[in-house]
Design goal:
With 723 residues, the chain is α+β, with helices and mostly antiparallel strands. The strands form ten sheets. An eight-stranded mixed beta sheet has the order 9-7-10-6-13-16-18-19, sandwiched between helices.
Length: 723
């Protein structure tokens, strides 16, 4: 059945309807054909991407196959579809290496021939896409305009301190040209490629040789002097992997796979609303670049791909996009395709390719937790990352330039993925993604009704290592001793020794300032550490830790053991001790474990323990005492019977007098001990008398440090980035 040419759209739609009737039963997937017909009506022809049927027999194609098998399956599918191409009089067409696709420019008659072929699965229009331009309206004075602010705000310092910086992996940046001579990128590039393409008389490629595609050193670095051609790609690349020894991108140890896909277009209709000539790419060039990444993923150890480009915003997922198949394939290899959500300031919409469900879509915040006004923001956005006034590598020379946009946000996530991959080479994609989502800071936009996590990289690593975290708010820093002296107590109630990692965060922005990891903490021990000690021993070394706005930190504590953390404040001048332990979840007000009971050797702060029987019968309690520094067991004390619903209070003096080993330890050097309840259904309460002021304070509250359910990363079913 042939199309009957109609000069109007309604006629085209009638022809489309008839054509779909003819092919719908056996060959239903032609959802994009109406857009193809509109383009043919306008231009006389349209560039299309044709997916071949390649799912039958021994030569079937699969997204999970290694690249060599995919190449063989593609060759078999191409052999089957060639008669249909010849029948449709399509003699010039483009093939792909690992994807069962062909691309060609077709007329209406040729389109009809393709739709009638049993070897054609779907047909998609090649769509133009743009760089996501800098949002010049942002005032840099409102933010710290540098990577030195944005990179710490996603919790990278803690990852670097653990030795994870992307070393051994690479990030592929699919963009315009990249200034590879910039100090932040010098020596980084591997696998350079150019898929900038010619089309008709108005679109010319930007490959340095003038021929597309081009591969090898310099293929993606056509950066004419005094030109802005490489501004975008250079800036994006330096955010992901830059490192000049002073300015650092997220994955500062990773390599770069630069891929140029932008061509010069002189057609005013294509460039509008920008003036012609302009630089544009399209879904075909990006598809070619992703195909290249898939084929070379193992060779270059590609951990992530960055796409800071996009088309018109869409509601919901856009899984009809022909690039979904290759993004699925990369995801199966453990490779994240980070795509910018775009800069239309919309709520509820993001642009392709970010709206592809298997891509990792990224919106923009400032260095804190405010969604940028220009950022698209949707319930299908995966992550948020900094994108306001980011000072990174300029496209020419050796200087830096400030840009704002989701273009700057997505490379933060692509770089973060490379850091995660360097920490967990065999982890499954979903493990890494889930850890980032679980540990991210929820951010939202007014009236959106949902939140999206801003990534926190070191916290995700801690979670994947089988640890959990608790955030303690407003811990007084050593710069404000008049407010009191802060101490943190880390109580290990597990059977094995472990450590805690403390991240000091600016209380106003949440930015990670520095990290400290404790020495080994024995079982049943609860060392008390002054915040001044943590500050002085934190990494990176030499950093000046001055919280902005107030003399407080928010402190994040991550442990490798089950137990508790307490925050206590001593106001020396007033003679007051206070328990300020407060966290969003895991607070244990009454429990069977009490850390850091003051011995009678600390005369001005006398401890008492209240034992509460919540059981149904009268019974006695057994208290076990441990040295708070070493965890060593000192002895056990048995109470008199306590009636159901009743409580018994005993003082530290009474306990030390009745339990001789405890008294002897206190007479030596013991100042604090831990108490554990057994035998009785109930709980303990620890109260302390501030002798100088005659007041009692409840010291029981503490925050649980439970091991995360995620557990350690396990090997992927298919090794990461394996081909």
């Amino acid at each position: 059945m042939n199309f009957i040419h109609s000069p109007n759209l309604s006629g085209l739609r009638r022809c489309l309807f008839l054509a779909l009737i003819a092919v719908a039963a056996p060959y239903p997937a032609h959802a994009d054909v109406e857009d193809v017909l509109k383009r043919i009506q306008r231009d006389g022809s349209a560039r299309v991407i044709v997916r071949m049927k390649a799912d039958a027999g021994a030569a079937a194609w699969s997204a999970a196959q290694p690249a060599p098998r995919q190449r063989a399956a593609v060759a078999a599918a191409l052999e089957k579809v060639q008669p249909s191409l010849r029948g449709a009089r399509i003699n010039a067409y483009k093939t792909f290496r690992t994807l069962p696709l062909v691309s060609a420019s077709v007329t209406q008659v040729q389109l009809n021939g393709l739709m009638s072929s049993p070897e054609v699965e779907s047909i998609s229009l090649v769509r133009r896409e743009r760089k996501l331009a800098d949002n010049a309206g942002i005032r840099p004075s409102l933010e710290r305009p540098q990577l030195a602010g944005s990179v710490p705000s996603i919790d990278v310092l803690g990852a670097w301190a653990k030795g994870y910086d992307g070393t051994g992996y690479a990030v592929a940046v699919i963009d315009d040209g990249v200034n590879l001579n910039h100090p932040m990128l010098k020596g980084k590039n591997v696998g350079d490629a150019c898929f900038s393409a010619d089309f008709g008389t108005t679109t010319k490629n930007n490959c340095p040789s003038g021929q597309s595609p081009q591969f090898g050193p310099g293929a993606a670095s056509n950066c004419p002097a005094n030109s802005s051609r490489c501004d975008h790609g250079t800036h994006v690349s330096s955010i992901a992997v830059g490192n000049d020894g002073i300015n650092f991108g997220v994955a500062r140890g990773a390599k770069l796979v630069p891929i140029d896909v932008f061509s010069v277009d002189t057609d005013p209709a294509d460039c509008s609303p920008d003036p012609a000539p302009c630089e544009l790419t399209d879904s075909l060039a990006v598809l070619d670049a992703l195909d290249y990444v898939n084929e070379h993923a193992a060779k270059f150890k590609i951990a992530a791909v960055n796409l800071s480009l996009g088309g018109a915003p869409r509601d919901g997922y856009c899984d009809d996009d022909p690039r979904k198949g290759v993004i699925d394939m990369l995801r199966l290899k453990g490779i994240a395709v980070a795509a910018a959500a775009s800069n239309d300031g919309l709520t509820g919409k993001i642009s392709p390719p970010a709206c592809i469900s298997s891509a990792v879509s990224v919106g923009a915040t400032n260095d804190g937790t405010t969604v940028a006004s220009f950022s698209n923001f949707s319930s299908i956005t995966d992550f948020m990352a900094p994108g306001v006034s980011i000072l990174a590598a300029a496209g020419s020379g050796s200087g830096l330039a400030s840009k704002s946009g989701t273009s700057s946000s997505s490379p933060h996530v692509a770089g973060a993925w490379a850091v995660l991959r360097s920490a967990f080479p065999a982890a499954q994609f979903d493990q890494l993604e889930t850890a980032l989502k679980q540990t991210g800071i929820p951010v939202t936009r007014q009236n959106a009704g949902y939140s999206v996590p801003k990534i926190q990289l070191a916290s995700a690593i801690i979670r994947l290592q089988g640890s959990d975290r608790r955030i303690i708010n407003n811990v007084v820093s050593s710069t404000a001793p008049a407010a009191g002296e802060s101490y943190l107590r880390f109580f290990n109630t597990s059977a094995s020794a472990g450590t805690v990692t403390v991240t000091l965060r600016d209380s106003g922005t949440g930015t990670a300032l520095a990290t400290w990891t404790s020495p080994s903490i024995p079982p049943q021990a609860s060392p008390q550490v002054a915040i001044e000690t943590i500050e002085s021993m934190s990494k990176p070394s030499g950093i000046v830790i001055v919280p902005s706005g107030a003399p407080y930190y928010n402190v994040e504590v991550a442990s490798t053991f089950s137990g508790y953390v307490q925050h206590v404040l001593w106001t020396r001048s007033a003679g007051v001790f206070a328990n300020l332990s407060s966290c969003a979840s895991g607070v244990a007000v009454g429990s069977s474990n009490i850390p850091n009971v003051h011995a009678t050797s600390i005369r001005d702060y006398a401890s008492r323990i209240r034992i509460v029987n919540t059981g149904a019968t009268t019974d006695h309690a057994v208290l076990t005492f441990n040295d708070s520094l070493t965890g060593a067991t000192i002895g056990q004390w048995t109470s008199k019977d306590i009636a159901s619903g009743a409580s018994l209070e005993v003082t530290a003096a009474q306990l030390e007098n009745e339990l001789k080993p405890l008294g002897a330890a206190v007479s030596g050097s013991l100042q604090q001990y831990n108490v554990r309840l057994s035998n009785l259904a109930g709980y303990l309460q620890h109260v302390m008398q501030n002798v100088a002021v005659g007041a009692l304070v409840d010291m029981t509250a503490k925050c649980e440090l439970g091991i995360a359910s995620a557990g350690p990363a396990t090997p992927a079913t298919a090794a990461a980035v394996a081909n």
